[in-house]
Please model this.
Amino acid sequence: MALHHKSPYKGWVGWLDTRLPVVYAIDKAVGPRHPTPRNLNYWWNFGSLAGLCLVIQIVSGLFLSMHYTAQIDLAFSSVEHIMRDVSYGWLLRYMHAVGASMFFIVVFIHIFRGLYYGSYKSPREVLWWMGVIILLLMMATAFMGYVLPWGQMSFWGATVITNLFSAFPLVGESIVNWLWGGFSVDNPTLNRFYSLHFVMPFIMIGVIFLHILALNAFGSNNPKGIDVKGPADTIPFHPYYTVKDFFGFGIFFIVFAGFLFFAPNYLGHADNYIPANPLVTPTHIVPEWYFLPFYAILRAVTFNIPLYLIGLPVLLGGLWALKAKKIGLKLGTIAIVVGGFITIAGFGGGQIDSKLGGVLGMFGSILVLFALPWLDTSPVRSANYRPIYKWLFWVFAIDTVILGYAGSQPADWGILMSFCAGEVQCADKALHALVAIEVPASWANSFIDITISLIATGYYFLHFFIVFPLLGKIEKTLPLPTSIGVSVLKDKGAHA
Model:
């Protein structure tokens, strides 16, 4: 019988690879047989760095799990036992905690690199989707991991975040009770969070495999944002980019070691060194820093939202999909029907409760990334050839940082303008707001406070739903190079 795969290797490696072509698969994925655009810069290092961070988290977490006890009376003590009694337990615990922050830093940079260079555009939509799914799995894993030390912020963070699901009508309370395993955050909650926290990284590995598979289907994007046209545009991944990656690993380990040995608690919260107490609420409940932008979006919505504000964009999106013949006629028609129904309900007085509006905004701020390949209508990928988008990208980056800072502050921080009725109410509002404007008592409830969080949240969604679609129509892009190889030689000549 003829062999389906004849190995190109000699000796025992060739014998094994003929029967189990793992070596050939790795070679094709990250070896000399994997052609890669020859102009990738150091921003492309963060994909491999993310993989390194995952390995650090799995290895350190595995050893921590050998000493941790998932029981509410013993969880906090078991973490202290790891820190004080287990040989190098302090190192393992800090490596895991700091490693989580490093993981998110690396992944956020990886995502913003994709946004800048248009790595989400056709034909890499599925590659982008897999990345967003990995981000969601990371966030779920990190949230459940933050609960495990069973400190004050662990307990109250779990209580606040899981309670958000109660905002969903009809099924909300049932979902919360299911998550808790009872009627409050208790031992069943800790047990199931521990189990899921342990399992999810391995699910993440499966999605990462699909991510790499999708990457190999069309190859990496590149800073020029143009497709590979021939062998002159590529070089083998190994040794050229493996050497580059290892240099990046060296820089990463220097930064990682700096936090690990000199500031291990810098990105944490002091209240989590206090054992969980259901009877004492912390003054200011905040999640870990990597959740802060989304937490700010959640808190920014303090008013009921008329349904037509949601229905009209869905309706217009459906009309645009039909006209542009994108996504599909069926989905466009469904969007028109659903959007029209929601809009009519909105004009009839239908509203979304402020709590549900905040929850939808928080989840929507991540889920909108799935639609990004179609929201961006520009034919050009790279921001290097999009002069307006290049500036607006940095506006969006700054906006995200502002949201992160706003999320770390108390709820009454950043009120720019507030409306009040009467001298007493205005005096109280003036303590927190930059400007307090007195209006008739009958009008006071008709106005909402204008906050930094609200403005930043508004721009966040405006960037996706208005800037991306509109910019592709009006922006005058710069001429693209004829090929990657020509552009590389031209750049070298310019610097000679």
Observations:
- The first strand starts at residue 35 and ends at 37.
- The two ends are 58 Å apart (CA to CA).
- Strands lie at 35-37, 234-236, 305-306, 351-352, 415-420, 433-438, 450-451.
- The chain has a mean pLDDT of 90.
